[in-house]
Amino acid sequence: MRTKVVESIVNLIEILTEEEKALLHQKLAENEGMKSEVKPKERHFQEIATPEEWIKAFREWTESHRGRNYPHISDEDISRESIYGERG
User: Fold this and answer.
1) CA-based Rg of the chain, rounded to a whole angstrom?
2) Segment 44-68, tens digit of pLDDT
3) Within 13 Å, how many C-alpha atoms sit on residue 24's CB side?
4) To pair with 26 at 20 to 30 A between CA atoms, which of 9, 39, 68, 76?
């Protein structure tokens, strides 16, 4: 604990005028209000998804591509020989 820092803050507060103390109180209240407005960090799908949810999401993604006019790639087009040629 940083007791010296706290003691220094207390000493500073003691020498404030009533107007300054009211302003400090207002600022502290605003700061507390901002804390309650902060939303907890949302976790990403990959952090929380179960294996079943991954499967479902993957299937939905693949289905979302159905019916698009993508070119057909044959097995020969993606074979090792066609990719590497003579290098093998």
Assistant:
1) 31
2) 998 899 999 999 999 999 899 888 8
3) 12
4) 39
